[in-house]
């Protein structure tokens, strides 16, 4: 997946604002079941929130985030506090639910 541009991230953050976390990372950390849940959620929704429940250290959250991104092929939209927003478009172009802007909106 190509790197998201700043205005695309802002657009996705706006779409994700009202979403509830679909995946919650607990004490077990990253397990095959957790990665399967992330994969399923990304396939169904393209844009998801992931919440860290038991990890308070910033370095731990960063390493887990990198592992999730590498394993899922998703792009990191935002990581604030205990929440991640991930985006991965559907592989089938006709079935994509989210159409990313190609140019910044004129203000």
Automatic annotation (TrEMBL):
Gene3D superfamilies: YhbY-like (3.30.110.60). SMART domains: CRS1_YhbY. The keyword Lipid metabolism does not apply. SUPFAM superfamilies: YhbY-like. Pfam families: CRS1_YhbY. InterPro entries: RNA-binding_CRM, RNA-binding_domain, RNA-binding_YhbY, YhbY-like_sf. Residues 2-99 form the CRM domain. PROSITE patterns: CRM. The keyword Chloroplast does not apply. Keywords: RNA-binding. This is Ribosome assembly RNA-binding protein YhbY. It comes from Desulfobotulus pelophilus.
């Amino acid at each position: 997946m190509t790197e998201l541009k700043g205005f695309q991230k802002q657009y996705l953050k706006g779409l994700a604002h009202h979403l509830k976390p679909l995946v919650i990372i607990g004490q077990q950390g990253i397990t095959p079941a957790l990665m399967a849940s992330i994969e399923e959620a990304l396939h169904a929704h393209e844009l998801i929130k992931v919440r860290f429940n038991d990890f308070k250290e910033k370095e731990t959250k960063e390493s887990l985030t990198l592992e999730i991104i590498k394993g899922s092929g998703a792009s990191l939209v935002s990581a604030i506090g205990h929440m991640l927003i991930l985006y991965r478009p559907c592989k089938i172009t006709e079935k994509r639910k989210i159409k990313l802007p190609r140019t910044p909106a004129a203000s």
